Amino acid sequence: MADEYKLLSIEDPFYEEDFENFSKLTSSLKRTRVVGDDHLTTNIERLKRSIEKRSVSSVLVKINQIGTFSETLDFVKLSKEHNLLVIISHRSGDTEDNAIAHLAVGLDSEFIKTGAPARSERTSKYNELLRIEHYLGDESVFSGSLLKI
Q1: Res. 149 pLDDT band, cuts 50 70 90
Q2: Local structure of 101: helix, strand or coil
Q3: What is the mean pLDDT of the chain?
Q4: CB count, 10 Å around CB of 116?
Q5: Which whole number is the average pLDDT over 127-149?
Q6: Which of 45, 56, 104, 133 has the least CB density, counted as fewest CB within 10 Å?
Q7: How many Å apart are CA 14 and CA 32, to the nearest integer?
Q8: Which residues pair with 111 in a beta bridge?
Q9: CB atoms closer than 10 angstroms to residue 44
Q10: How many C-beta neighbours within 10 Å does residue 49 have?
Q11: Domain extents for the chain?
Q12: What are 16-56's pLDDT values in tens digits?
């Protein structure tokens, strides 16, 4: 299915404790990223276990899951050290606060996940990314090559 439909990613395809099947799927997919959300819960100990077992190729980062900026930074740093793609994510029921747009840019994450631009708490993040790009001007870089499948 991933090859036929050129899927970019699959998020939490198995039960969060099923490191074995996560690993099997991750190793079998050539172009599709396996993203750990509930599988990792932005928890560095779970990330270390995942790295050891090679259970994901991408991580979803939700700052309020782990609780502090410093723990989030440690999680992202370790992810990048192991060549895992980083996705900064909003939370369900999020507010219009746009801090995750700055976090995504500041941490050089490959993606941001904030849902379809259907409500103001989502569009506020996209609008902030546009403002950041405008502010950075020619210094802004888009890693569009990551989208090629």
Answers
A1: very low
A2: helix
A3: 91
A4: 7
A5: 78
A6: 45
A7: 15
A8: 87
A9: 16
A10: 14
A11: 9-147
A12: 999 999 999 999 998 899 999 999 999 999 999 999 999 99
**3-state class of 88 per DSSP?**
strand
To the question of domain 9-147 being in CATH 3.20.20.120, the answer is yes
Contact of 34 with 25, CB cutoff 8 Å: yes
The whole-angstrom separation of Cα 46 and Cα 27 is 19
Cβ count near 38 (within 10 Å)? 14
Structure tokens at 117: 């631009």
Spatial contact of 121 and 100, defined as CB atoms under 8 Å apart = no
Judge whether 66 and 88 are in contact, CB under 8 Å.
no
d(CA 66, CA 83): 21
Q: What is the dihedral of CA 41, 10, 35, 68, to 10 degrees?
A: -40
Q: What is the 3-state secondary structure (H, E, C) of 14-59?
A: CCCCCHHHHHHHHHHCCCCEEEECCCCCCCHHHHHHHHHHCCCCEE
**20, 51, 73, 119 from 98: Cα distances, Å:** 36, 30, 18, 13
pLDDT band at 70 (very low <50, low <70, confident <90, very high): very high
- Tokens 């276990």 belong to which residue? 49
